[in-house]
Amino acid sequence: MGTKRIVTLLVFLCVLLLPTVTLFAADIESYGFGGFSIGAQWLDISDLNALLSANGFATFNEPTLTLGFESYYAMKKRFLFGGEFQLFWQEATNATYVQKLNGYWGFLNFGYSMFSRPAEGFHLYPLVGLGVSRNRLRLTERAVLDFSDIVADPKRESYLTKWDFILQASLGVDYTLGFNIEEKDRGGGFMLGIRAGYQHSATDSNWNMSSLDISGDPGMSMSGFFLRFVIGGLGYGGSYDKQERKN
């Protein structure tokens, strides 16, 4: 089964199953939530890998492992505003070179809760975001050098970078448990979540080295699907009417 079909199936199952899950009827007027994430990102690096392989270099893996964090604030129960930061890194080697590919990106995200946020239970919401990515490729020759070797031939290591604007659309699913209501109408809970979506590079800039554009460079972009798992928490402060548990 292809990657697109897997992600589509996960999203469909979330939409299908969530309405049947038992929820608390207590609605939070305003709240904040967030946490740390780990996941997989499918990058568009086929052209880069083809050029590396044709020149005797090792290739990079796809998908790549990502780490990051995110935080959101909800207004009027439904409207979500927040952001996230993600990063990845890979290393590939052969007998002559050490290669490193890494990147990071940040998003401003907006979302809408598909039903009022319960104090405990499941939460479902779509997100759209606008962000910026920065990728870096480092090629280093394997050698034991002294200072005179470097001065005599400084072309032993190259750093290439590229910046792009990116867009994303995703679906978030959270489960909050262990919710605690304090005396002053404040509370919080432990949160587990899943994010599944697609990123698209709105621009495709050239690689550059020391602020100099590189011509004939291979394409690479953040365009691709992603799947992330989030662990964090939810907190709120304000009035709250606790009702009986619904099925």
Defining traits:
Porin; mainly beta; 247 residues; single chain; two-stranded antiparallel sheet; 12% helix
| Strand order across the largest sheet | 2-3-4-5-6-7-8-11
Order of helices and strands: HEEHEEEEHEEEEEE
C-alpha Rg, in Å? 22 Å
CA(first)-CA(last) distance: 35 Å
Reported CATH architecture: Beta Barrel
What fraction of residues sit in β-strands? over 45%
Uncertain spans: 14-25, 239-247
CATH level 1 class label: Mainly Beta
How many structural domains are formed by the residues?
Answer: 1
User: How many runs of DSSP E, i.e. beta strands?
Assistant: 12
Q: Helical amount among residues, as a percent range?
A: 10-25%
- Based on helices, strands and strand pairing, what is the structural class? mainly beta
Under CATH, the topology can be stated as Porin
Shape: elongated
Give the integer mean of the pLDDT values: 80
Please work out how many helical segments DSSP would assign: 3
Largest sheet: 8 strands, antiparallel, barrel
Structure description:
The chain has helices at about 5-15, 45-55, 145-150, and strands at about 25, 30-40, 65-75, 80-95, 95-110, 120-140, 155-180, 185-200, 210, 210-215, 225-235, 245. It is mainly beta. It has a single domain (about 5-15, about 30-235), classed as Porin, CATH 2.40.160.20. The chain has an eight-stranded antiparallel beta barrel. Strands 1-12 form a two-stranded antiparallel ribbon. Strands 9-10 form a two-stranded antiparallel sheet. Strand 4 (about 80-95) and strand 5 (about 95-110) form a beta hairpin.
